[in-house]
Amino acid sequence: MAPFWTLCQVVPAFHPAIIFGAAASAILMYAFYNILFHPLARIPGPIWVRSGLWSWKSTRAVKLDIGWKLLELHEKYGKIVRIARNEASICDPGAIEQIFKFKSPLQKTRFYESLRGVDGHNLLTTIDNQKHGEIRRAESPAYATKLLADFEQNVDSCCNDLIGYLDRCIDAGKGTVDLSEILQLFAIDVIGELALGKSFGFCAIGKDPYNLLPLLVKFLEIACLVGTQPFVSPFVMWLSKKLPEPPSAGAIPGIVRGRIDSRLQEYKEQGTNSGHHDTLERFMSCRNPDGSEYSLQQIRAATGLVLGAGSDTTAITMRAMIRFVVGDPRIYSKVQEEIDDAVSSGAITFPLSYSDACKLSYFQACLKETLRLHPAVPWALPRLVGAGGATIAGHFFTEGTEVSMSPFVVHRRPEAYGNDAAVFRPERWIEADAEELRTMEHNNLAFGSGPRVCFGKAIGMMEVSKAMPLLFWKYRMGFTPRSATSPHKHAAGRAVDGCVSTSEPYFVTSQWVAVQSDFWCDLARRTD
Ligand code: HEM
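That is the input. Now the predicted structure with protoporphyrin IX containing FE docked in place:
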């Protein structure tokens, strides 16, 4: 016994060596448990991820490279990869139905909570399936397909602003334009019209007067990073209320709140909704399951989601389409030819109606191919396995584990789109028979899938289908060559698949959304 007592006297309980030893043993035991005994222990993946000692997803959220890094993991480890201590990413198209089906026992994970705005939860961020179903039913009138015709006028007026701005640039001898910025402004204006009946007027002046765009990008980047560690979310929310706001941060929320307030006032005075063609009008008529009217906060949250979900996504799709189409002379001339022929035969006229845009079959195939190879949301969409567990892609996942599928990864897998899945080939959508087409549509996750599928899909498709043929018809476009004197900020561009090259026209960061920046194009009128 003597040596033991001696040890206790020499090394008291709080001695750093003991504390360090205890902590190291606890960490080691934690890592061993995660690697050997955790319910996902049999799923392959990088050892540090499996140990739970490294957050691969937080690293991706910081490095903004989720798309290609996740693709690499699947190429190395197969169809199911452990990407977090408690999460497996799956790229087997057969799992889409199992994960995203209606009445699924799987629900969204806490990741989504970080995407909520100041007005609280909305459709996108509501986790509970039943609650989500109630909100979706209540808000469905705002997204009804029959309203598309009303919304079309709003898109037309923003198209006029966009063309006006680009024409002015060309007339002033400045046909070199950063399309990443102007298309974002266009998308924000359109969504302002759709949500609140009035554009923000950014496109008409061709600039972002509040310097808001970088702020929006940062907000999403931080929200996504926080989502990878949901336990810090309440602290970040608390901190964001304490820290001083950047001067421009309140500008758009201020305008939005002002417009909502004045509409409610108008409603109060007139006693009826007064025929506005926007989603605000529909949200004002929404009812909760108990029959009560939507509160001001609910109207704000629903409107905030339309503004947040409907601008980045469409701008990303438009830029990507230009990149893919203009980047391939064969495809570019086919698109232009189709539009020119349709104009000269009188099959379509401008302003282009959505129904006429749908007649442009090659253009529509290019749009589908764009959404496939550059889905606006590449992040692995996470779902929590519910009571009783679930068998997905041939593997049994126990309750409480998380599974996810990345649209970017699934769309590039041969089992989903064939051996040329990585190639931009619009013809695949035209050559396919009815059965193949159904499979390709089913495997497309650009808008999500199942009961949580994008509610604004029809609106987004309408907007892009109206605006892009107009741009292709009016302008000859080319990518501004990168040189020491060109306006580019990056010495080399980066494609959506992570490839860095001086001939790549824009720079992609891949996180919750895959945003392009620094997209300089030379524009000239085709009729000059
Ligand atoms: C090309 C354009 C668009 C793309 C690629 C896109 C993509 C997506 C994706 C991937 C999701 C599902 C996310 C998930 O499961 O976690 C989503 C949800 C959503 N999107 Fe879109 N979106 C687009 C345009 C729009 C527009 C224009 C609006 C509004 C007018 C909109 C409103 C919504 C809403 C409300 C949800 C949540 C639906 C729910 O959870 O019930 N989106 N979108």
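Residues 123-124, 136, 305-306, 309-310, 313-314, 317, 376-377, 381, 446-448, 452, 454-456, 459-460 surround protoporphyrin IX containing FE (CB under 6 Å).
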